[in-house]
Amino acid sequence: MSRFVYADNAATTPVSPEVIEAMAPCFSEVWGNPSSQHGKGYEAKAALDDARSRIASCLGCRPDEIYFTSCGTESDSWAIKGAAALMKKKGRTHIVTTKIEHHAVLHTCRALEKEGFEVTYVDVDSDGIVKMDELDAAITDKTALVAVMYANNEIGTVQPIREIAKLAKSRGALSFTDAVQAVGNLEIDLSTLGVDMLAMSGHKIHAPKGIGLLYVRRGVRIANLIDGGGQEKRKRGGTENLPYIVGLAKAVEIAVARIPELDKVREKRDRLIDGLLRIPYSTLNGSRENRLAGNVNIGFEFVEGESILMWLDMAGICASTGSACSSASLDASHVLLAIGVPHEKAHGSIRLSISHETTDEDVDYILETLPPIIERLRELSPLWEDHLKTKRN
Ligand SMILES: *Cc1c(COP(=O)(O)O)cnc(C)c1O
Asked: What is the pLDDT of residues 150-174, one digit of tens each?
């Protein structure tokens, strides 16, 4: 029997049956337009309001601080561009971010540079934690926004967001965090976290692709994203995607409720890490302690990450070389380079991202399958041959 093991949950997750069940009535029954002035519309509006308040109570914010978007990328881009546009009027044309952000943040910052904004990309240490003294030194009286991700999608490092938000505030700058990988993995309480904006996405937590949200603290002003009707307080026009919003509410509730169960995921993660580090010339990328419950990222010298993935796929195991977004290009991961992993090692790195659904048998199967793949790939590698020669001499 061939096995199938999905270990790429940081790229996307399957929609859970409970989420599908919660969404179903929005296609068959509650299909009205929430803006309509009749029974069908009121019914849809009630479902929309209910979803918004349930998410707000999971995240510790007010319902009117949540803006639904189409994805994490849209939320990231809107937060940064929307804040930049209004802060520019106050003479603040500088953005501080880090070298390990998701491309949704990095490429938005690049776009703003073309419009005349200045951006500082702060370094991280070898564990992938932002250097607070450098962050502090980077903020000036021209800084509009400090954008630091909550948890990294490639190496799972968690950042001190509370401290960062406090620092930004003390200098009159806004703070934003990309929490796409954090929701469902870490307790998030926006009433005490201190950030001005936070982004999340549905499809990383078992809701469908095509739904996300941006939290904007009451009193913080950002430019509109889509001018149109009165939806999302006139900031993002367009008839609300009610089925997916209702699905997102269900997914957030489940994800948050399951946080206490993450210890079991952590155990499996550690078993994977310990097992895979027995392979000669392998290194764990990122912090051993300060990492997301389901994240494993390991570099294997003398082999290519892409080849490992191909062989794993043939064995029924889905993994990734880091971010799904950069897998189309053959550039080494910007995150691994930022934590000081040399190019050759970065090229031989893979990420396994497991979930509540991952079983002990799945872990066993990965631990049985991966070591011989690395061994065989090394036998085919001229780099490995050179290495053996130099060792003999
Ligand atoms: C997946 C991801 C995004 C993008 O979210 P989409 O909903 O796929 O656009 C942004 N940031 C991080 C950290 C992610 O993991």
From this structure: 999 999 999 999 999 999 999 999 9
* Residue 73, ligand 1, Cβ within 6 A: yes
- Residue 236: beta bridge partners? 226
Best CA proximity match to 269, nearest among 167, 331, 346, 360: 360
Q: Name the β-bridge partners of 121.
A: 97
Distance CA(38)–CA(50), nearest Å, equals 18
- C-alpha 204 to ligand 1 mean position (Å): 8
State residue 278's pLDDT score.
98
Closest-CA residue to 160 (of 148, 174, 145, 144): 148
Q: Is the pTM of this model over 0.90?
A: yes
Strand order in the sheet with 197-201: 66-69, 212-216, 197-201, 174-178, 143-147, 94-98, 118-122
**Which pLDDT tens digit goes with each residue over 89-104?**
999 999 999 999 999 9
Domains and CATH numbers, the chain: 5-13+260-392 (3.90.1150.10), 17-257 (3.40.640.10)
Does 104 sit in the ligand 1 pocket, CB within 6 Å? yes
